[in-house]
Amino acid sequence: MKAPLPSRSPWQLLYGGAHGLRRRWYGRRARRLPRPVLSVGNLHWGGTGKTPLVAAVAAHLRDRGLAVCILSRGYASRGRGVRVVSAGGGPLLGPMVAGDEPVLLAGELPGVAVVVGPERWQAGKHALHRLDPRPDLFLLDDGFSHLALARDLDLVAFPAADPFAGGRLFPSGRLREPLSAIARAHAVLLTGAAGPPAGGDLAEALRPYGFTGPGFASATRPGRPRRIAPGRDELPPGTRVFLVSAVARPDSFAATVRALGLEIAGELRLPDHHAYPPATLERIGTGWQASGAEVVLTTSKDRVKLLGRLDLPLAELPVRAEPEPAFWEWLDGRVDALRGSS
Questions:
Q1: Does the pLDDT value for residue 289 go beyond 80?
Q2: What is the pLDDT of residues 238-285, one digit of tens each?
């Protein structure tokens, strides 16, 4: 594994320089919460397996007996200000108000609080005043580029299928920040990786960019596709499905469905975080009927936006992240040290 050399194009240098100025500006002004703050983020524009990784980290810390609060921006939501999506008992708000990923996390993580707001420091202060129990620790969802809040641990996900995003920044590339930004991360995880050596290879490939931490592998495991209707029956191999997805990597979703032995009778691919207005719901109905499929199969992130709005047989394909054991050992040691010093 080898990271690409930095681009020397004038635009890439200008855009990279702007990011450097932004980092230095916030480096002197970032506000701190009175609890440890962990961030799970990425350098890519979507499609890194970040959300399953956030869920895995939150569940692990919860199972250690910590009161965990996830802080999220609530991307593409219509709500304003700070919103408590879950106090630990499941979603209190819908995806239009809170965002699809926060609602998904709230539903999958009993005992974990989820709070959204454009300013994560304000969201954290709100959580400390309103939640019972008060959070022992904050987990930033997609927080690597949110420099306004100081964090104690930065974890960055890189997708095994495209770890370096071509090495180029937006708009000609798929990187949010230059690869040199990885110097401020504490650990990197290669998501969708086959085995532990790949995580170490990623870390070594990033050394020329100033990264000094460890690298770990994190497998992405699909569950069995299951119906949303009562009973949540699994779909047997050979079931004809109509795929609907609004994710960054629809090719990966379709490939997983095929690998599980399902027959794709038709497919509708939509932009990431699509809101599913009535016109799109009509398109789904028309496409499903024309395909002759038995069910509409979607991702868990899309399921939260379609549930109760689509009068068709609906199923979802759940996925989970499984970081290698060495990652959990490293994380537990860092969290224990942070809590001991807080």
A1: yes
A2: 999 999 999 988 999 999 999 999 999 999 999 988 999 999 999 999
- Closest by CA position to 141, among listed 170, 94, 106: 106
| CATH number of 37's domain | 3.40.50
Does pTM top 0.85 for this prediction?
A: yes
Q: In what order do the strands lie in the sheet with 215-222?
A: 83-86, 113-116, 68-72, 137-141, 37-42, 153-159, 187-191, 215-222, 319-323
* Count of structural domains, the chain: 2
Q: Any idea what the Cα angle at residue 324 is, between residues 323 and 327, rounded to 5°?
A: 80
Exposed / middle / buried, residue 336 (Cβ in 10 Å: 0-12, 13-18, 19+): exposed
> Which H or E run includes 313?
none
Average pLDDT over residues 187-201: 91
Same domain, 304 and 333: no
Provide the residue range defining the domain that includes 284: 224-317
